[in-house]
Amino acid sequence: GQQLNQSPQSMFIQEGEDVSMNCTSSSIFNTWLWYKQDPGEGPVLLIALYKAGELTSNGRLTAQFGITRKDSFLNISASIPSDVGIYFCAGQNFGDMRFGAGTRLTVKP
Amino acid sequence: GAVVSQHPSRVICKSGTSVKIECRSLDFQATTMFWYRQFPKKSLMLMATSNEGSKATYEQGVEKDKFLINHASLTLSTLTVTSAHPEDSSFYICSARAPGGRPPYGYTFGSGTRLTVV
Predict the structure, then answer these.
(1) pLDDT in tens, B7-21
(2) Degrees, nearest 5: CA angle B10-B4-B13
(3) Computed over its alpha carbons, how large is the radius of gyration of chain B?
(4) Are B114 and A40 inside 8 Å of each other by CB?
């Protein structure tokens, strides 16, 4: 099946630093999505990308849909303690959505 | 916006018993719902896709007789873990998609169910 490679697996940063994580795939996706999951909760959608090359922001978050449709990145600027959690990328083709392994983010005050 | 309610949030059961998990779309009709399983510190693994009024489609390696899925209405899908064993202990999450929906409205996740089999 379609495999998503998400990196890094984990990040430990200081409050105020910027964060970047990315996802690559061997297959093309029509839609890329980025989710955040807090402990014991379901994922919450952060950003959805629908077109190759699209760059979308949501507050301090910025994500881009790669030109090849096989990759996407997520940037978080000026991190704050509540950014802590696991971030998942997901690629979607019609009804099929696959997730990356996640990036566990720790923010030190 | 779209809200998906999942119940229970936590359940502890004895080995050999069955457990039912409910996933409800509260403010929209969901023609398709998805069930995921998540191991500690791991990603979400799609178990099955359920379509209202028809049989669920299971991913390779998922036992359909073990994980029974019923999507009898446009607002409710249930996952029943039958004859549960400790290795079935996991975090189960559902998501729902509205007809013709486009993300983010199209895919909304429940808050998950932590199943512990003792």
Answers:
(1) 999 999 999 999 999
(2) 20
(3) 13
(4) yes
